UniProtKB/TrEMBL annotation:
One of its GO terms (molecular function) is sulfotransferase activity. The lineage of its organism: Eukaryota, Metazoa, Chordata, Craniata, Vertebrata. InterPro entries: P-loop_NTPase (IPR027417), Sulfotransferase_dom (IPR000863). Residues 35-253 form the Sulfotransferase domain. Belongs to the sulfotransferase 1 family. Transmembrane segments: none annotated. It holds the Pfam family Sulfotransfer_1. This is Sulfotransferase. It comes from Chrysemys picta bellii. It is found in: Cytoplasm. Its EC number is 2.8.2.-. It comes from the Eukaryota.
Length: 345
């Protein structure tokens, strides 16, 4: 099934028809999760392949056999993809499942089980750059045009797979209702061993130090980039144009850009030097003016040093009084300054 030029629309989101049909998407939305299932949920280009590899090896206690002989899409099949239905139904034991679908599609089914969800997020600037290059490579995605054009579509949420902002907020809003573990690409990049240990403990699969070291070594970017089971070189050129680059490009976390030079007045805060660094935006924690994290929310503007001012969430609501508009006003769009001078190579 090629359907390279086809786009499917489901739950208001455009998706590539090469991988999805209405039937496969309905199957995903009504999927019967088991209590032993583990679901990896991500927005595209947020470290999905990395997490698939880590969890494969946590389940195998560091045994590399499956990771070196079975493609990752068979070890952790995509719930919404056309080829996955039989594979998922035929698997009798605990299943490792992957999805890019938004929370509103899967949450009702997930609430009927005790399945565990691991949500991995990544700095949206890096997601946009990586997603742009993937569009140039994947023949089942539309021509992205210039990076500037693609970025406008990304910020508007009109790219395939929808809005990054809605995707992250949607899944994180379900932390209290679902068995959900939240981790970031930046967390894993900074402390791979510690991230593996935390995930293993949460999954009830504690590892020995030597097993963690084995997983660390195999899940390094350099190792995975050369592993045909995860680097997508097995995908034929008719589907993915490998002459346009490598699926696993850099695997780096750029330093956050400096705040803008100007000072912008913010009601209730006096003056603020600008938006918070990208890594803090990613973890949905704004910085106070003294550089420390404020309350958990999505506001890009800085709270008072003593934390007395209720910060805004990304949707403009007060974190302290959910559902009530905050008295503070963000005078610029979320993350707007971070795109200036972005490295798109």
């Amino acid at each position: 099934m090629a359907r390279l030029e086809v786009t499917e629309t489901f739950a208001g989101i455009a998706l590539p028809g090469h991988l999805h049909t209405q039937e496969s998407l309905r199957f995903a939305s009504s999927f019967q999760f088991r209590d032993t299932d583990v679901l990896i949920a991500t927005y595209p280009k947020s470290g999905t392949t990395w997490m698939q590899e880590i969890l494969t090896l946590i389940h195998s206690k560091g045994d590399l056999e499956a990771a070196k002989t079975i493609p990752n899409w068979d070890r952790a099949p995509w719930l919404e993809h056309t080829y996955s239905k039989d594979l998922l139904q035929e698997t009798s034991g605990p299943r490792l499942i992957t999805t890019h679908l938004p929370c509103q599609v899967l949450a009702p089914a997930l609430r009927k089980s005790k399945a565990k969800v691991i949500y991995m997020a990544r700095n949206p600037k890096d997601v946009a750059v990586s997603f742009y290059h993937f569009h140039k490579m994947a023949k089942f995605l539309p021509d992205p045009g210039s990076f500037e054009d693609f970025l406008i579509s990304f910020l508007d949420g009109t790219v395939q797979y929808g809005s990054w902002f809605d995707h992250v907020k949607g899944w994180l809003s379900q932390q209290a209702e679902l068995e959900l573990f939240y981790i970031t690409y930046e967390d894993v990049h900074k402390e791979l061993g510690r991230s593996v240990e935390r995930l293993a403990d949460w999954l009830g699969c504690p590892l020995q130090p030597e097993e963690i070291r084995e997983i660390q070594q195999h899940c390094s970017f350099s190792s995975m980039r050369e592993n045909a089971m995860v680097n997508y070189t097995l995908v034929p050129c008719e589907i993915m144009d490998h002459s346009q680059g490598r699926f696993m490009r850099k695997g780096t976390v750029p330093a956050p850009p400096p705040p803008p030079g100007g000072v912008t007045a913010v009601k209730g805060l006096g003056s603020s030097p600008g938006l918070c660094p990208s890594t803090d935006c990613l973890s949905l924690q704004p910085l106070r003016q003294d550089g420390t994290s404020s309350l958990l929310c999505g506001c890009p503007w800085m709270g008072a040093k003593d934390g007395s001012e209720p910060p805004l969430r990304a949707d403009g609501l007060s974190q302290e009084e959910p559902g009530k508009p905050c008295s503070l006003v963000c005078p610029q769009p979320l993350l707007s300054w971070q795109w200036v001078g972005a490295d798109v190579t």
